[in-house]
TrEMBL record:
This is Phosphoribosyltransferase. InterPro entries: PRTase-like, PRTase_2, PRTase_dom, TRSP_dom, UCP020967. Residues 266-386 form the TRSP domain. It holds the Pfam family PRTase_2. Residues 32-199 form the Orotate phosphoribosyltransferase-like domain. It comes from Moraxella macacae 0408225. Transmembrane segments: none annotated.
Amino acid sequence: MSNFTQHRLVLLSRGRLELTYQTKSGYQLDDLLGFAERINPKRAFLFVSKVLGRHIPVAPDQMRSAFECLAEQICDNLPQPILVFGMAETAVGLSAGVHQTLQRRYPNAILLNSTRHAQAGDLLTTFREDHSHASQHLIYQSDDLAIRQQILSAKTLIMVDDEASTGKTCQNLVNALIQAGLNQLEQVHLATLVDWSLGQVSSNPFSQQRFFRHHLLAGQWIWTDTAHNHNIQMPNVATTKAGSQPLLPTGNWGRKPTLNSTEFLPNLLKNLYKQLENIDKCHLKRVLVLGSNEFVWLPFLLAECLADDWQINVKFAALTRSPIAIDNQTTNNQTTNKQATNSQTAVKSVLSFTDNYGLGMTNFVYNVDFDAWDLVILCIETPSDSVDSLWQNLAEQGKVLILAEG
């Protein structure tokens, strides 16, 4: 482990990104991140995680290692009850992985993710993620009165996200939860893969709670726009409406508080093996499992099971509503003063299609070459006939297996 300060310059078409960073774990910058350009007027650049299994296919064991390493940064003897909170959509799998690891020490910790999909049931609160392509987040109550009371009595909040800078989103969340009745909070922990607050004045933004930050890498960034103006037209992906397609029970977990993040995994595995009955598994050496939007944790567990059971090359990625540009970038590692030009960003390819929720919204999948895989398993939380014709055609060609309950 090293706190040696390093520097990186990333040049994108809309500007330059200057990074200063330190590592406190076994992870280096290139282990955790690549870079790309957002189709978003609010923030031009994107840190593309190499361990989340979202925009880049990742082996399940690499994802699991990152989940566990982040959870291990969080200290013992936390005041209980504990609420582990994950940010939709990017961090809902990360939060579940951190929660599952923490339950070895805190078995009664509750997992709750925000969502952008309106649900039946009572809202606990809402809050905003100001720089996001879809800034509004919904948080739902439990249907279980005992769990409701446990949440209201929470003394420790652990907010999990892929990265953080100012901590403003965490403040928005905490303020919303306190206004919703969580007035017994004593500690707030912000757990992120990368924390970009290095060099900022270390102050506690909360008057009544102790505040802690945990991360695998710490740094700071400076973004400078290029001189020419940019007319960025972002797709309309900010809705929090309920779509016309039903959310099936196996998929619709985590949007309401839960103690058990794996209870529907047997159903998903049963459905998969039933659909694989007519497939010659002997020829499957490379399998890609795709989650969809907020439905990523159970598909990740499925990918993990396949990798363990079949002993083959399995990787995981996910569909997303996040619009990313594909352009050229140049990177300069200032610790070696060697400049390298990369003809691609961390996002090498994109497919766009209509979402499977019945929202009429464009969704995307990045870095997926269907010819590179013997089988792609698309896991969805809506009925199987809800997917775009692109996926239906791929299924008819035998390149994709669509895994759903109906």
